[in-house]
Write a structure and sequence with these properties.
This is sn-glycerol-3-phosphate-binding periplasmic protein UgpB. Keywords: Signal, Transport. The complex is composed of two ATP-binding proteins (UgpC), two transmembrane proteins (UgpA and UgpE) and a solute-binding protein (UgpB). This protein has about 450 residues and is of the alpha/beta class. It folds into 2 domains: about 30-145 and about 315-355, D-Maltodextrin-Binding Protein, domain 2 (3-Layer(aba) Sandwich), CATH 3.40.190; about 150-315 and about 385-430, 3-Layer(aba) Sandwich (D-Maltodextrin-Binding Protein, domain 2). Helix content is about 45%, strand content about 15%. The strands form 4 sheets. Strands 7, 8, 9, 10, 11 and 13 form a 6-stranded mixed β-sheet that branches. Strands 2-1-3 form a 3-stranded parallel β-sheet, sandwiched between helices. The chain has a two-stranded antiparallel ribbon with strand order 4-5. α9 crosses α10 (about 215-220), α9 (about 200-215) crosses α11 and α17 (about 395-410) runs antiparallel to α18.
Length: about 450
Amino acid sequence: MKLLVSQKLLFPIVILLICFTGLTMAIGKEKLEVAVFEGGYGIDFNQKVGEEFAALHPDVEVEVWGNPRVGEQLRPRFISSNPPDVVYPIGPAPIDVWQLIQLGKAYPLNDILDSPAIGADGTFGETFIPSLLESGKVGDNYYLIAGNNDVYSWWYNEGLFEDLGISVPTTYEELLEICEVIKANGIAPFTFQGRYPLYMTAGFLLPFAIRVGGIQALVDAENLVPGAWNNEFFLKAAEMTQELLEKGYFQDGALGMTHTESQVEFLQGRAAMIPCGTWLEAEMIEQIPEGFRMRMMQIPAVNPDVDPAIVGTVVNYWMVPADAKNPELGAEYLKLLFSVPNCEKWVKEKMSLTPILGTGSVAESEALLSAVEVMENSSVVFIEPFVGWTPWYPSLGKVIDDGMAALLNRDISPKEYVDTIEAEAERIRNDERIPKYTRQY
């Protein structure tokens, strides 16, 4: 006796089998979720790395998403202990990664850093610029990976320097001499992003203090050593900044300029120099006149007994949340993203430097290569403490930046400025509720 099955009955059975098989395959796959801040560099590169990760791990489904306010969207997910597997939570509403570390919400990255590097000899951790790697360490564990390496110094108009017959200054005295020549030719020696005083904090106060008292001057200040913010080093730095102001070496009206307005002034040749990070060229690419040659210089020496070959860099951080469903996959994604091959691609595609040693040498921009030269010839690459999205002590950064604006507006003296900073540092130092951090170079 034959068992007859009608076509009407057979069709839904086949569909159910197909759906069940697909569901089984989906259930069998692990998922990697990557959340990224979408800023000027977009998220296309991260998505390409996600595709590469999926090809290397066919048993893993990869989702890479992002937008300009990713931090804001991630906050409720951290509260509910359901974060993505790896995050870059910076932007206008950033997540305080340092607070997450204190709350035990960050996954230690020691193991992945000790694993073999991709596309390079040694371990993954050994491929990093040491100071950038160490900046993500708290206690005995590495919790954060530097997501960028925006070297910060002074940019100058090379063509203008040649036309005026002046050279890049190597000492503060030489700086004053060339500023006088530039000013005499009707050009502002410096412009700056006055609406955002942190550009001047990073461009003048901190590097001047370092060149007076050495890198330990900054280390002591960051580590909240009593009296470090209003000692002779920072007072001299504030006085030097004031001297440049009083000599008329800062462009009139710069205090009211946005970052892009002041940068246009530089690109149009109305100012010879400007403090900024390596994002300058990429940010202003549409406004750069044909033939314009911007180059980065090392900030001149002040104290002959102090090595001036020290440069800062702006760093923001990636993190693997401890409560993620697949933190191990999140760590593996970071290893692939910051592999030497991918970092070299990033430098070429995005005109931006990475925290990985040697990758800047593949830059195709002469401007960016000049920054690479400054960095590679520096004995110390220090972390700019107040320019990134999540500084250790936000209130201290605000006092420093507000005070810089007041100093440039001639509302306070250098002594009043540094005393105000030290008062806030003392308040933080004595508040046991505020976690304290230390750094050493």
